[in-house]
Write a structure and sequence with these properties.
Largest sheet: 6 strands, antiparallel
Strand order of the largest sheet: 2-3-1-9-8-10
Shape: globular
Distance between the termini: 29 Å
Number of helices: 29
Radius of gyration: 24 Å
Helix content: 40-55%
Strand content: 5-15%
Number of strands: 17
């Protein structure tokens, strides 16, 4: 796990020393991603410089240092991530006569490029990776991102330079660039609380989409193409396997994925929430270890959000060496000003706070941690997959006025009153955040088709553009591809996998963990497991009112059912009460009318109206308000 960056001086105005200095500045800005060592490499005749910051995980010696040249000196590489099948690839290359200087996965991948070609090698890789590869013979730069978008990679033509890097900080560190905010990206952010790929917050700078290769020769336009697409996986035909065989096959793939991600020359552990996803990862990890693994969790003083006791029960059962930390509102308040430093474009998933803290807790003890991220997308774990389908079935048999009647009835009670009413339900069956869910259901009943229902469920504002001085949102190819998937739940899971997963969940985990110099590995996003899961019919993942059916069945083989069977919580914080309580003064200052006017991004009238509605008790606005606050905090830090 590392940080990469680089540039091409298209006019070749910089000599070798100046190129190296620019590249060094870029790498220095992301030192947190790799505090161990750094380096630069230049091809001054071509105007190219590569830079690198290293968090040493495999081959801790100098032979694992980057930038690295291939044995024949044709290729130079900087690489962020891990290749989990590098040992098999190394053996295959050795049989073909390739010799190696060290034991790193970087060298294996680099020699594979030379032996098999770039695209063919990438298709062979199992791992997470963001790669910059310079072909000295063809004078061509390759940028490569892993299939699911686990590792980030930005690029752009900025003035007379082509820039790229793991984070936007690296691009900003170059001399002479005055970035301009992409207001259309802000419009998309207002809907989703993250900026969807391929856009970034800056005009002319993009995220390389997951599963993509970018080929660039100075003077030409960048050529981006896919080597792996989630659409191909989601549109493949389904296979009916006997239940026992499907469960065993999935477990074998998970075991292999976990085993491969336990290869490291440094200490490693697991992030444990107590939910099904992290529990199965930790349980399989412990099954593969001959000593207690280390597990880490974050708890909350608010019992409604606290999963620490559940994680504790899992840790006790599997026998891990467990550490936990409780998050107070004061601790969160201390962290909030740092959020724009970690997420250097607007980002408003509030679980970034506990993710940062659990990463810091783990990093005090280990250098690598496995997590259960991706389980909800791969195995259909979000409650909306069931609720939206059920709502659509009911709506299809209703007239328009009856739908509106149901919506009005659900909205007649405030979020807080629904939550109070929910306390009459036995705790084991009580839905978490009942009021929030009932108001979301009301908004669903006001929609006209399935796509509108899903979009409303993942949106934080009905009309994001109303808040903006300028900016217009658009929806990418993924939304059009989704229309080819006839099943509603599968369509939602596909969209979550290609949008929400890389641009929210994986962005959150990458920045939060790397800000503490912790590497997080995600075995449930092994592409082989994803490809297998999508060959199975939907009832293997959703059965009746049970989400993640297959994953649960695997989990029950390792952990008693009563430990993990409980209402889904997610890794959330008590945002509503914090914003009305200990965070109120900070939020009020961020949304001050004069400040909004001076910043020039948002219309003060609609923003203040929404803030006042929230303060008057409309808790359903909490996540949208958090998005406004994070955009303002980002402006304060970067603009």
């Amino acid at each position: 796990m590392c940080g990469i960056a680089g540039l091409i001086d298209l006019k070749r105005q910089l000599d070798g020393n100046e190129l190296a200095l620019q590249a060094k500045h870029m790498a220095a800005s992301i030192r947190h991603r790799g505090p161990d060592t750094g380096g630069q490499w230049t091809d001054s005749q071509s105007g190219l410089a590569l830079s690198f910051r290293r968090l040493a995980i495999i081959d801790l010696t100098q032979t694992g240092h980057q930038p690295m040249l291939s044995g024949n000196k044709r290729y130079a590489i900087v690489f962020n991530g891990e290749i989990y099948n590098f040992q098999e690839l190394r053996a295959e290359l050795a049989e073909q006569g390739v010799t190696f200087n060290g034991t790193s996965d970087t060298e294996v991948m680099l020699e594979g490029f030379g032996r098999w070609g770039v695209e063919e090698t990438v298709k062979r890789l199992i791992g997470m990776f963001a790669v910059a590869l310079w072909d000295r013979e063809e004078k061509r730069l390759w940028l490569i991102r892993d299939r699911l978008g686990i590792k980030p990679l930005y690029f752009g033509l900025v003035g007379e330079r082509f820039l790229f890097g793991s984070e936007l900080k690296a691009l900003r560190a170059t001399d002479g660039w005055e970035p301009e905010i992409d207001r259309d990206a802000v419009a998309a952010f207002m809907r989703f609380n993250y900026i969807p790929a391929p856009r970034s917050i800056y005009k002319g700078v993009y995220k390389l989409p997951p599963g993509s290769l970018l080929s660039y020769r100075p003077g030409d336009e960048p050529d981006v193409r896919r080597y792996w697409t989630m659409a191909d996986i989601a549109l493949q035909s389904r296979i009916n396997l006997p239940e026992g065989k499907a469960i065993s096959a999935a477990e074998a793939l998970m075991r292999d994925a976990v085993r491969r991600r336990m290869v490291a020359d440094v200490p490693l552990g697991a992030l444990l929430s107590g939910g099904v996803d992290s529990t199965i990862v930790a349980a399989l990890m412990q099954a593969e270890s001959d000593q207690p693994i280390k597990t880490f969790t974050i708890g909350f003083e608010d019992a409604q959000y606290d999963e620490a006791k559940d994680a504790r029960a899992v840790a006790a059962h599997i026998g891990s060496d467990h550490t936990e930390l409780y998050l107070s509102p004061n601790r969160a308040r201390d962290l909030i000003p740092q959020l724009p430093n970690w997420y250097d474009e607007p980002f408003a998933d509030s679980s970034a706070l506990p993710t940062r803290l659990v990463s810091q807790l783990a990093q005090n003890n280990v250098t690598v941690a496995l997590s259960g991220d991706g389980g909800d997308e791969v195995f259909f774990g979000y409650n909306r997959y069931i609720a939206a389908e059920d709502a659509w079935w009911r709506m299809s048999n209703m007239s328009g006025w009856r739908r509106k009647l149901y919506a009005t009835a659900a909205e007649s009670l405030s979020v807080q009153n629904w939550d109070r009413l929910g306390k009459l339900i036995p705790e084991s069956r009580r839905p978490r955040m009942l009021g929030d869910k009932m108001h979301k259901l009301a908004s669903v009943f006001r929609q006209n088709d399935q796509n509108a229902i899903y979009r409303r469920l993942v949106s934080h504002w009905d009309d994001p553009g109303s808040f903006l001085v300028q900016g217009q949102e658009s929806f990418g190819q993924s939304w059009r591809t989704a229309e080819q998937i006839p099943d509603f739940a599968e369509r939602m899971a596909f969209l979550d996998t290609v949008t929400y997963l890389p641009d929210d969940i994986l962005t959150k985990v990458d920045r939060a963990s790397m800000s503490t110099s912790l590497e997080v590995r995600v075995p449930l996003l092994d592409h082989r497991l994803i490809e297998f899961a999508w060959t199975l019919p939907k009832h293997m993942r959703i059965r009746g009112s049970t989400t993640k059916w297959l994953l649960r069945e695997i989990c029950y083989r390792h952990v008693p059912k009563e430990i993990v069977d409980r209402p889904k919580m997610g890794f959330a914080i008590p945002l509503e009460s914090w914003l009305r309580g200990p965070l109120y003064e900070w939020a009020e200052s961020m949304l001050d009318e004069q400040r909004l006017e001076e910043d020039g991004l948002f219309n003060p009238g609609p923003v203040r109206a929404a803030w006042n509605r929230f303060l008057d008790g409309d808790g359903n606005l909490q996540h949208g308000i958090w998005g406004l606050l994070q955009a303002q905090a980002w402006l304060e830090r970067w603009a």
